[in-house]
From TrEMBL:
The protein's name in its UniProt record: Endonuclease/exonuclease/phosphatase domain-containing protein
PANTHER family to which the protein is assigned, alphabetical: CARBON CATABOLITE REPRESSOR PROTEIN 4, ENDONUCLEASE_EXONUCLEASE_PHOSPHATASE DOMAIN-CONTAINING PROTEIN
Gene3D superfamilies: Endonuclease/exonuclease/phosphatase
Endonuclease/exonuclease/phosphatase domain: residues covered: 12-254
Amino acid sequence: ILSCTSETTTVMSYNIRYDNKWDEKNSWSTRKESIVRIFEKYSPSFIGTQEGLAHQIHYIDSVLGKYDYIGVGREDGIKKGEFCAIYYESDTYKVIESSTFWLSDTPEKVSIGWDAALERICTYGLFEHTMNKKRIWVFNTHFDHMGEIARIKSSELILERINDLNNFSGPIILMGDFNSLPNSKPTHTILKQLEDAFNISLNKPKGPKGTYNGFNEDQPIEKRIDYIYLKNIDALNHEHIDDRLENNNHISDHLPVMVDLIIKP
């Protein structure tokens, strides 16, 4: 299936859990080194993180030497509130353009959309491979946990934005925490135009069925709400990574989703 003109690259989506002082045994300070270790161990070309606050994003950036990142805080468009950051291997890719929009009827300004509880964003970039000059769009988002209408409308808005931007019909990655189960309306909306890497992976997906663990180390992980969607790209491997802390606690309340991609010539 791999032709000599195809190339593979790896992408990861990871809700790293915001630094919440009430987490106690699951505090950011006990988890942060293990989160960085995951990135170093699997070494994806692109990492989309959700929930990271500015100091978390900066910590990861300071430790990961080979990555730069794009992203802003959702509460002010600069650094306040949670980011949907995209880290990228800066030796391999350069950013051609990037931006963030809000999941609302007024996407160009800081806003809360529809029945959502909080500001929600999508950060994206157009990346160019430094050697072969191939370009790829990468989108990273985090849908609202409360607003049912907001999740559907967010799906529609992101697809609209993808269609507006992607005038060269190039490869697209959309990843994130969608707070939506596989059989839900937001998921079906996205699947009208993009493919779920879990469904199209050439090799059988690895790891637990779900991605949300709620920091419960003993329960089976069934709830799949984190996804990597693709267009004009094939998926070779798909994995929900269930690495743990030394005491068997989870590293975050979500598992990272990792996909090996085949970018078509």
